[in-house]
């Protein structure tokens, strides 16, 4: 890859200004997209489900912890029974906030669900050092019910679903996304996108050939 052209500071600034205008336009378009997302209709969730958690069995409503909103990350199933947990999903959870108090201050809870036995998922959480709450929908239909076919033909995919608690404690689903739709919450990618080299994935045999669990990188 050829390096960028070397120019004077003034020439760099002159080249920067047109991009700044495009970035501002993109920010306005992004704000409009957020507003459109927030104006989507919602549908009622007609099951309590029953999640295994470190604090015992809890319903979907109880996962709100008394807050108005709940975001759940759908962690992809291991490829085989007893197999390794998804590298991509582990990468995404690594990028979740270490301090959830900021979300809590905006009346929002966050949790990660994987439909495997809870003890297996907690073991992986402890290895990774995550602070985000993890739960297990093992044995119920939650993972399938909210694994929307947003990508034609794809099933059992990672994603995010967002829920709202009504004044009567009725739970509603307001939003769901999957695959590239979750890039928004991966700050490693967001930082890399600011750099000259970017994500450095275009010339790899497959997109995540570089990816490891964070405790397995040699450097």
Coarse structural class: alpha/beta
**Stretches with pLDDT under 50, minimum 5 residues:** none
SSE order, one letter for each helix or strand: HEEEEHHEHEHEEH
Distance N terminus to C terminus?
Answer: 23 Å
Percentage beta strand? 15-25%
Question: Quick check: average pLDDT?
Answer: 93
Write down the overall geometry: globular
At the third CATH level, what is the topology name of the domain at 43-184? Glutaredoxin
- Tell me the strand order in the biggest sheet: 1-8-7-4-5-6
Number of helices, counting only DSSP H or I runs of 4 residues or more: 6
CATH class of the domain at 43-184: Alpha Beta
Largest sheet: number of strands, sense, barrel closure: 6 strands, mixed
- Computed Rg: 20 Å
Do you know the CATH architecture of the domain at 43-184?
3-Layer(aba) Sandwich
- CATH homologous superfamily caption of the domain at 43-184: Glutaredoxin
Overall number of strands: 8
Helix content: 25-40%
Overview of the molecule:
This protein has 219 residues and is an alpha/beta fold. The protein has a domain at 43-184: Glutaredoxin (3-Layer(aba) Sandwich), CATH 3.40.30.10. 29% of the residues lie in helices and 17% in strands. The chain contains six helices and eight strands. The strands form two sheets. A six-stranded mixed sheet has the order 1-8-7-4-5-6. It has a two-stranded antiparallel sheet with strand order 2-3.
């Amino acid at each position: 890859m050829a390096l960028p052209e070397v120019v004077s500071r003034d020439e760099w600034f002159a080249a920067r200004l047109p991009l700044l205008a495009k970035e501002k336009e993109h920010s306005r378009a992004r704000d409009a997209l957020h507003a459109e997302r927030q104006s989507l209709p919602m549908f009622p969730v007609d099951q309590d489900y029953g999640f295994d958690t470190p604090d015992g069995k809890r319903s979907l409503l109880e996962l709100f912890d008394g807050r108005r909103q709940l975001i759940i990350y759908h962690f992809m199933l291991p490829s085989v029974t007893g197999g390794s947990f998804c590298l991509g999903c582990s990468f995404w959870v690594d990028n979740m906030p270490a301090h959830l108090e900021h979300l809590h201050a905006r009346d929002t809870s966050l949790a990660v669900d994987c439909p495997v036995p809870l003890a297996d998922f907690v073991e992986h959480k402890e290895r990774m050092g995550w602070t985000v709450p993890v739960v297990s929908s093992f044995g119920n239909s939650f993972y399938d019910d909210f694994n929307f076919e947003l990508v034609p033909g794809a099933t059992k995919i990672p994603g995010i679903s967002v829920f709202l608690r009504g004044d009567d404690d009725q739970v509603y689903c307001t939003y769901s996304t999957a695959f590239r739709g979750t890039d928004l919450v991966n700050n490693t990618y967001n930082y890399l996108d600011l750099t000259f080299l970017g994500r450095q994935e275009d010339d790899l045999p497959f997109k995540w050939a570089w990816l490891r669990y964070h405790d397995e990188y040699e450097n």
